[in-house]
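Data availability (excerpt). The following record was deposited with the supplementary files.
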Amino acid sequence: MPKYKCVIAYDGTDFAGYQVQPEKRTIQSEFEAVLAQMHKGTIIKVTASGRTDSGVHAKGQVLHFESPLTFPTENWVKAFSALLPTDIIVLEVAIVPDDFHARFHTTGKEYRYIIARSKLRDPFQRNYAYHYPYPLDGEAMREAISYLIGTHDFTSFCSAKTEVVDKVRTIKEMDFEESDGFMVFRFVGEGFLYNMVRILVGTLLDVGSGKMSPRDMSGILDKKDRSFAGKTAPAQGLYLWKVFYK
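Predicted structure:
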């Protein structure tokens, strides 16, 4: 059977995350329900590049599935657009080799985190950005970032709930820009731990607000203890922006 790769985007506001969960609305369950409809009740399983949590959005999530249907890829896009709920959209469909795997073949991911900096909270941004109107020292935050780029044990920046044993990860790029009342953080790495990006953002905000020093980052990494890093930033500001493959 042909194997198909899909690039999808979704508004995570009304989902309990990507992965199927009993009696909860998830991206995977919605996608597989549409595939079952297209295949006259046959269950077609999909595999994604990774999970996203409740409230987290995606601009470029990637998944794959196998199907006996062989109509052109542009027809797949049209069919998904007609059948999927309006908070999920398929951007691209491509036929890939039989050995392609959306999760195991990734070479990296890019996440972005959006912060609204306006003095007054915008009700139309409440599900898509974290409102943080307080003063921030951008230079201190950039200095803190310099300690975090590279290969480190990120235990301190990972949820204690994770079951992953090896917490060494490599961040290739980390920066932020400010424009039009928003601060946008950008993270590019080979892989990220559970809540890692949100904890990094929360910690950088602590640095920017003067609660921590940029040089504290080295000590936090060395401690390998979640309690030493900042709070976990809210889910609504986080976006899985792009998944990289060879």
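Summary of structural features: The CA atoms of residues 137 and 208 lie 4 Å apart.
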